[in-house]
Specification:
The protein is α/β, with parallel strands linked by helices and 199 residues long. It has one domain: Flavodoxin domain (Rossmann fold). The protein is 35% helix and 16% strand. Helix 1 links the parallel strand 1 and strand 2.
């Protein structure tokens, strides 16, 4: 069975909530799912001062284990329109895989969280694409495959680039039902592509 890793970094828990719906979509799409998180680089003292959420009880992925999967969905919040330092450190540790092109030809996609509608959801993915290009990983966008992406009646995270949520600057807003439905769609669509590539 095709194996997909869902890999997240989440400070306040929003990305992990979206990931749960991503996993549901992948499972509906008929693939095996491995659920992992990226190692924290901040101290417990700093995280406490930030009022960060407790880390979920899921394993931390060692980058050297990435070749075990047939594809990847990465979820993380934006930091000024790019990846958080923790995610950058994770990818910086994949140099050995890059020299071997061990991940070339595998699909990957992204999902994300921002504080506001204009906090950089699309540009966060855009600035992550060079990582995929250097590894030869195939970017799989969500497209407009869920009708909620056409809905302008309320604040809805996500775009053609991937599922997403709006957290508010203080983290008070939780992912909406529509945002979670978009995430399920992304999981389903990604599973379809991953199975075709693996065939």
């Amino acid at each position: 069975m095709v194996k997909i890793f869902v890999i997240t970094y989440s400070t306040y828990g929003h990305v992990n909530t979206v990931a749960e719906s991503i996993v549901k979509g992948l499972e509906k799409g008929g693939v095996d799912v491995g659920r992992y998180q990226i190692a924290e680089t901040l101290s417990d003292e700093i995280l406490t001062k930030m009022h960060a959420a407790p880390k979920p009880d899921i394993p931390v992925l060692n980058p050297k284990n990435l070749p075990e999967a047939d594809g990847y969905l990465f979820g993380f919040p934006t930091r000024y329109g790019t990846t958080p330092a923790q995610v950058k450190a994770f990818f910086d540790a994949t140099g050995g895989l890059w020299t071997q092109q061990a991940l070339a030809g595998k699909p990957a996609g992204f999902f994300f969280s921002t504080a506001s509608q204009h906090g950089g959801q699309e540009v966060t993915v855009f600035t992550s694409l060079p990582i995929l290009a250097h590894h030869g990983i195939i970017f799989v966008p969500l497209g407009y495959s869920n009708p909620h992406l056409f809905d302008n009646s309320e604040v809805i995270g996500g775009s053609a680039w991937g599922a997403g949520t709006i957290a508010n600057g203080d983290g008070s807003r939780q992912p909406s039902e529509k945002e979670l439905e978009i995430a399920v769609t992304q999981g389903e669509r990604f599973a379809e592509v991953a199975k075709k590539l693996a065939a």
